[in-house]
Amino acid sequence: MSLLDVDGLVKEFGGLRALDDLSVSVESGELVGVMGPNGAGKTTFFNCVSGVVDPDGGRVTFDSDDVTGDAPESLAQAGMVRTFQLTRELETMTVRDNVRLAATDQPGERTIPALARTDAMEQRERAVRERADELIEAFELDHLADEYSSNLSGGQRKLLELARALMLDPALLLLDEPFAGVNPTLTNDIADRIRDLNDEGMT
């Protein structure tokens, strides 16, 4: 079975049918693009697949499980991660902290482990720091690591959002308009990063 199967997806907004019996399958390791003019329903499709909005009909199957209507956080934990057309970085935090914050299973976020400061918690925090620094360097944001994300250009924010998504180690990465509002130089850079990720096995 495909990693992602979308069967007969329907979504309506009032009298407008944004998605009309849409079906698509994505195999593990594929690089697939969704194309269409503004208003064609691309973001609505992503929103329905990733749990941001519930479809009015159809089914979404991810890794053999029916995940139709599941919450985005549940899907992210299962390995389906998406970015947004408009980036959603935390502007009053640094680039480094934005990336670190995306990591799951951080014991220090819970009161008792944070107070206890166990060896396991410190090991996990060290792993998060190292992985975040690896991604920041891989996306050539290391010279901006201590900058507030509000100071980044549109293209740099796209790279930051991609790095944050990868902190979740996804099986399926959905990129909504990854080149929107990005200058040609950074567009090529982002495209190269996407191809590199796919060459490494990312779907």
From TrEMBL:
Keywords: ATP-binding, Nucleotide-binding, Transport. The keyword Transcription does not apply. The keyword Transport applies. Residues 4-203 form the ABC transporter domain. Gene3D superfamilies: P-loop containing nucleotide triphosphate hydrolases. One of its GO terms (cellular component) is plasma membrane. One of its GO terms (molecular function) is ATP binding. SUPFAM superfamilies: P-loop containing nucleoside triphosphate hydrolases. Pfam families: ABC_tran (PF00005). InterPro entries: AAA+_ATPase, ABC_AA/LPS_Transport, ABC_transporter-like_ATP-bd, ABC_transporter-like_CS, P-loop_NTPase. It comes from the Archaea. PANTHER family: CONSERVED COMPONENT OF ABC TRANSPORTER FOR NATURAL AMINO ACIDS, CONSERVED COMPONENT OF ABC TRANSPORTER FOR NATURAL AMINO ACIDS-RELATED. This is Sulfate-transporting ATPase. It comes from Halococcus saccharolyticus DSM 5350.
